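for the recovery benchmark. tokens below, seq after
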């Protein structure tokens, strides 16, 4: 049995903003919806294999519980908890990297 994947309010808001930004750039609701859906659904693998991706080097004082991966030029950061995986950050990967 896998862990529960939970999107934090911040990550959900960032994904929503990514949708709006991408829609403005692409002018295509179909393309935007497909990409954002793939980003959202990509987190499902974390339920059964949370340590598949590398540690997040941008997380200050990372004790080995925060990991990251990229999909469609979006960088997804997540926290591995006892019973849940928390998606904590969604950031466009081509922006200047920010530590947090």
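predicted aa per position
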């Amino acid at each position: 049995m896998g862990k529960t994947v939970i999107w934090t309010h911040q990550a959900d808001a960032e994904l929503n903003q990514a949708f709006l930004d991408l829609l403005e750039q692409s002018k295509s609701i179909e393309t935007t919806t497909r990409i954002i859906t793939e980003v959202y659904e990509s987190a499902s693998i974390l339920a059964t294999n949370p340590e598949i991706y590398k540690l997040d080097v941008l997380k200050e004082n990372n004790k080995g519980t925060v990991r990251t991966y990229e999909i469609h030029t979006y960088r997804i950061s997540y926290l591995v908890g006892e019973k849940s995986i928390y998606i904590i950050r969604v950031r466009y990967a081509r922006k200047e990297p920010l530590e947090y």
